[in-house]
Amino acid sequence: MNKTGISFAAARAAYRPDADLGPLPALTDPDTLLAACHPDHLRGSVVKLAIGANAGDGCQRELAELLQAEAFIDEADLAGTPVTDTDVLVIGGGGAGCAAALAAAERGARVLLATKLRLGDSNTVMAEGGIQAAIEPDDTPQQHISDTLRGGHHAADPALVAALVADGPDAIRWLIRQGMQFETTATGDLHTRKAGGMSAARIVHCRDYTGLEMMRVLREAVIQHRGIEVWEQSPAVELLSNERGQKCVGAVLGSLADGRLRIVRTRSVILATGGLGRLHLNGFPTSNHLGATGDGLVLAYRIGAKLRELDSFQYHPTGLVHPTHLSGKLVTEGVRAAGALLVNGEGRRFIDELLPRDVVSAAILRECQEGRGILSVRTDKTRLGVWLDTPRLERSQPGLLERQFPKLLARTRGAGIDPRVDPLLVHPTLHYQNGGVLIDVNGATTVPGLYAVGELAGGIHGRNRIMGNALLDIIGFGRRAGVAAVAERDRGPKKVTLEHVNRMRRALTLAGMPLTHKSPRLLPAYAGGAWNR
Amino acid sequence: MSDSAAASVPLTINGTAVEALAGMTLVEAAWRGGVPRVRGVGCLEGVCGSCRVLLRRGRDVTVALACQTFVEPGIEVVFLPAPSAPRHHYEIEEFADGWDVQARFHEIFPEAARCRHCHGCVRSCPKDIDVEAAIVLAAAGRFRDAGAMFFECVMCELCDGACPEQIAPAHVGLFCRRVTAHFHLRPPNLIHRLEELRQGRYDVSGMPQGE
Question: Which homologous superfamily does the CATH classification assign to the domain defined by A75-312+434-500?
Fold first, then answer.
């Protein structure tokens, strides 16, 4: 990437919250902008998969390396490994995993929830903006469906979108029953915001701590539920299949605590492992949690599940460039929804801030590539960005930032930055996996006994997710999968095998691919990796 | 911004000597120093409450979240183990109604009325919550106000570890917030739309609404 731009000091000195930003240039063709500047379209970013259920499909390069790789374990590792039986195994302890576990346990199932880190350590806990539900008088479910399909460039599965939208209001009721609070108006209505790509105000929220409020409530509900056992520090290293390698009948869990393996046998497995921001696709920073390494995609693909839109990822427009320790962390779209503008190094607006996220991100990257970005020089590397003009927002709506965005102020305070005075330097950050495991409306994958929910699942958001649909998706589809997994009539496995691992190994060999790369990743290398913790 | 010659900062993490750079957090320093078995790192932005550390500066001992604490020369850092499972049990669905919630609270959290005002919880909170005052409100049945004081709580449970009466303040705070929503949050706009959906006003293919 071209690393020229306006120096931070010069841009900061020239910045005025009341400066004239000039006219907004017209965006004639968003598709051309996306093709030229969106990271999905970078040369060499996408390769064709050679083996597996998606052979021949395009896939992001770093992800393809993990999908077409060898497992960490083989049959010899299963001998003498302790076995636990349960009705439903949920893998992943974020919002989707907790919703699935609660839904299954509410129906009387014995549930084991295994999570790589601590229960609740997830992207859910960091979500800020809110959750979509069409509840305002000028809004309808049909509008929510249309906005979601259009925002996703009409690549989503309409049946999944209809299911998502149908779940909206009831998901909010269910969350309130669990004890989640939401922002209300003076009349007691749920307060709603309108964000990018929406035809009506539809985001309900808990100031800018929506994910934290949701996660701490669901986490407590899971811990307190008698029907749910939680295993922390227990990453899934492989799924288990029946003798023919065609049904999922359990999983092999590792342990970050004692390093031992454990076998779990079950009637159904619900994967809820989240996204893959920590693979830092195309070298981008990420807003994601440390554990977001795409493990579920790897496990699902190896057992034969079909995936989709593996070449489509969301780069959120406003990731922080500084302070350093928050690099890539998010400034919620809610700030732009409230009226904050984006300003380049020349002090000009360059894009309608509330266009879909992929378009706004591409526009920021264009400014940076064409020399109108702001250059931040640090010890390790040079980074470019543009201003998110929060002081101007504060001028027009005094007190708003403190009232509505306490998390933003709390995070930057430690580094001596006050968004009410200092404009924030932002750059697109790898935020969300648009595609994922192919599912039906119950979260069932193409492999019997295996469900996938949350960010891991694909088809709900097409090729671009709009704000507030992720928190809805994890609750709606999480609960659906929990219900469906309990209804699974199978009496449970007679024999658990790694037949699917053998099948993948044969395919790798036939394709002349190396057996030296192993996956899933579990933790990024810079965090010490998983196996030498 | 241009700290191109960041000063080296010596410190100790889990007994390992580490040379960090000024401006790094304790998590970044642990990674840079290759400190083994550092668990509990999660969100890296101070909201998951996992990276709990004990800090020793001379005779002064405090607790904090490692991802939000910057390196200092000579500081000794110990990453704390994850908190143990909570000792107080309740299922919110089992509460009959809001009238007996004070009685239920004192059954579930009998220690909450026994606060000895030692300030241990207040001193341990990385979010500057006045935990002690909130516990007094909770014990008096003021759940909405008490819960509001816990708004920025990230459930690191450092206050639970600091409480000699084993009140489990973080869980008390969450109880207060949950019963407030569970019994009192009844938004007319949401209820109206749920009712319209129940009556079939909108053709939404998919799952039937409600349980």
Answer: FAD/NAD(P)-binding domain (3.50.50.60)
